[in-house]
Amino acid sequence: MKLGVVSNASWLSACEATGVEFVPLPSPVMPRGNLYAADLGSRVAAGKRVYEMLRRESVDALLDIGGWGLTFVEGAGGLSDLKLTHEAVGVPLVSFFVDPIRTSFQGLPWEITWKILASPTWTKVVWDAGLAKELTAFGVGNVRHLAPAAPAFEGVKEPSRHAATNGEVLFIGDACAGRSVPLGMCDASFDWVSRIGVSVRSECADQAFFDIYHGLYQVAPAPGAADAPGSSATRCEAYFRTKELYAAQLSLHQRDRFVIWLKRQLGDRFRIVGNGWDRAYGLTSDPAPADPDSFVRMVRAASINLGLIEGDTESALNMRHFEIAGAGGFLLAYDHAELGHCFRVGEECESFHDEQSLLAKIERHVGNPDRRGAMARAGQQRVLSDHQYRHRLDALIDVGAFAPAHREESGAAVRADPPTGRPGQVGPAGDQSQCGRDRTLSLAGRSEGPGLADRVGPRNVGRESPDKLLVLLNPGTFTRNYLTDMVTAARRLGISTHTIEMGEVWTHLASGYRPDSRQLAALIERERVKAVIGCCANGLLDWDSSEDSEGRLVPFFASLGLTHLMWWTDHPQWAVERTALNPEVQVAFRSPACHTFVKSEVAALEIREVLGWPSVHALPVAEDVDRLAPVRDVTPDYDVVAIVGSPPALEPGLEKLVKSDDPDEEAIAEVITGIVKAKLSAIWSARAPERVRHHLAAFGEAWIAAQLDQPKVGSYRLMHRLREEYPAAVAWLRSDYAVYFDAAFAMWDFGRWQRTFILAYLSRYFRVGVFGSDWSSLGLGKSPRIEHEEQPSVYARGRVALTVSQAGDEEGISHKPFQIAASGVAMAHIDRAGLSDCFEPGVEVETFLTPREARDSVGALLEDPDRRSAMAAAARARVCRDHTWDVRLPQLLAAAGVEFSGVLSASSEPVEGVAPRVDRFSTASFPGPLVPSERSG
């Protein structure tokens, strides 16, 4: 059996421990660090990635936590025709829920959540028997009950000695007062129901809210077997909304009340670790554990650890019970329904039921370390033998959860308890969003090693490198495509890879917790990582930095002796909201271990000289020609097609000129010159000291004149040539990089007008289609973002594909010409320095510089179909030969001085028989903790 495991470290570890073959799969993007808030769009985007991966690597079932693997793929009707990804692939999905359904799908409208719950191929495994009963009664099929589990703590290598004699009583967890947030979202008229429910439960602890709501107080008719599927959706939503009020108040009843009371009784002997206690109740508390090792140390050092129950849980236990016992701590737990099913009370843990019994049990056990030690060791052994995720995976296999699912008959909940002697319980803190319970995270890394080359191509079979390349994968699609293509190329070249999902790292950083650098360092040593590659500054300061002997900052990877390669598809001084210009980041980029890659030599020169980064290289981008291949079944319906991600912007003064049959180049230059002069003058006046303003004014005039005279030369190269004539101005500009880059941005106006102007001008003579953004103001259509794999189909709609470089690409070329050429469409490209190094003008690409030249070039291509076909074929062949990632990756590594032993150089000829891209990545889960900083409703 092979499972597709969605973004969960504990399930990955469980598969490894049980010998189940698995494929790591991506999860939806996490809005605001909360994966439960994933909306329809992010679930559709993730579904597309999962679907493409599973088309190439089959699995028998999908497994996730909290419904993270519930994604969608678009049918022929687009967003109006969605299908569940697992059903489209034809495999069952098993989701293990440790939070309520409404919490787990808070990013989706209830109507959608209710509809998808009816999926007969989706098994919903819930941690609490009461929830299983509710869902089944409301007509949801394939519901099973399985207790939670504990993570495999990597820091626990030996049985607990538990000799703590400090008398400390410890509670780790956030205040539940934030559970009052949903009150404003629920029907306030039903608030009395929730209050009465808590009152009834205080006298009869085994009364479930479902029975109180539908039976005892008959707030609404109970659902019945005769109900049509989905007919109870409205009543079900009202019920669950009211239960949110109930859960908020029940949290106070069976959890927070004991913390408040015990702090007043024990004072400093009682230590609270978690967030929100000061705001909610005026209680002092310590920050949440920074990582799993810190959690283990805290638990083992305390004499007594409290296990309390949140209001979402009516009969089961929280994850924290199993985490405490699994770490080797002495557990004193609230007497809850399933406590005795999971632990032998009095032997493996101790229990209490009210304030008086709590205090009595504390006083009894604090003074008896031998007894506490024996119980802690027994509790730890129980978790290690019965209550880890590998045991839950065994249970799911035993009950056939991964077999093709069927819709259950309505009635009592189907309970899938573990086999006798293996009762269940909850999982790791790091596996849930901020809506989840108190948790910690264990690290589980995966990598693809030797042997993978056999599956992706024959080039280097038997010559895999023993060292690995660590790839930091971005969330999203654009730059991520380049990185995943590099992974595929690395495998074809025999380079083993290991990947980390940076989206997970950023989510945890946004929650206020630093990643555990020690765990990542251990992973790097274990996996024999030799170099790191990522996009932009990713990974530069995401893990702990250090200082050298002179107090200078040393980035994390550099401190381990690794070469860090950073690939930029845009200019570092402008991309990602200018984060590369942050002073702290500037110091990091100057590390000799950090290598920056940009698209042109002038851009590299500019960064080396202005910012002082020592290792900056110029290297064009590349493409995976298997992913972008010609589409033959599309009939062109446009003369000219362009994919543009930005809206049109026609500078004032150019509106009349664009309507001319032969736009006056001098008139255009006059308009743009006026705009640039005004911007530079404003910068000099506002930013420069009085003593250099006249030097800057004179230099600005010369700079503009040089740009007009040499339009294909980058503005920094022109400034460099003017430094002897204007030494004071150039020296001052280079001394203040913030001012220089603002001035350079103004100079980019000499190219900024071209894209909008030329496309608008051509539309007067040809049928022009612009895709990727809204150009309806110019009558050129309105299109959504074009995904990477959709480009060949879009370009095929035009007889000619046209691309005008963005303003910042004064020299060099972007990704567009490689994508057009790979798509097999004839291309017209604005003439730029560096274009002829990649494509032969007149043979593989048609070039132009002015609007009229663009019109003539396009017209000539449209009149000659044979030449268009020959040009398209030649450009495609050039990409296959010189511009694939199989060629570019070795160039990139060589520029940074990185060598992988046993790896052949990239062939200069197309590789015959290379299999299509295998989109399976060895994803290392986030190396650090996720201990929620706040509870959200």
Describe this structure in words.
By secondary structure, this protein is α/β, with parallel strands linked by helices. Helices cover about 40% and strands about 15% of the residues. The strands form six sheets. Strands 15, 16, 17, 18, 21, 22, 23 and 29 form an eight-stranded mixed sheet that branches. Strands 2-1-3-6-7-8-14 form a seven-stranded parallel sheet, with helices on both faces. α25 packs antiparallel against α26. It is globular. The relative contact order is 0.10.
State the main characteristics.
937 residues; alpha/beta; 8-stranded mixed beta sheet; 7-stranded parallel beta sheet; 37 helices; 29 strands
What's the structural blueprint in terms of helices and strands?
Blueprint: E1 2-6, H1 9-18, E2 21-25, H2 40-56, E3 61-65, E4 72-75, E5 78-84, H3 85-89, E6 93-97, H4 101-104, H5 110-116, E7 122-126, H6 129-137, E8 143-145, E9 169-172, H7 191-203, H8 209-216, H9 233-266, E10 270-273, H10 277-281, H11 292-301, E11 304-307, H12 319-327, E12 331-334, H13 339-342, E13 350-352, H14 355-366, H15 369-386, H16 389-398, E14 414-415, E15 447-448, H17 453-456, E16 468-473, H18 478-492, E17 496-501, H19 502-510, H20 517-527, E18 529-535, E19 546-547, E20 553-554, H21 556-559, E21 563-567, H22 575-578, H23 583-589, E22 594-598, H24 601-611, E23 616-618, E24 638-643, H25 665-687, H26 690-709, H27 715-721, H28 727-735, H29 737-747, H30 749-752, H31 754-762, E25 768-771, H32 791-795, E26 798-803, H33 816-823, E27 827-830, H34 835-838, E28 846-848, H35 851-862, H36 865-882, H37 885-895, E29 923-924
Helix pairs in contact: 1-16, 7-9, 12-15, 25-26, 25-29, 26-28, 33-36
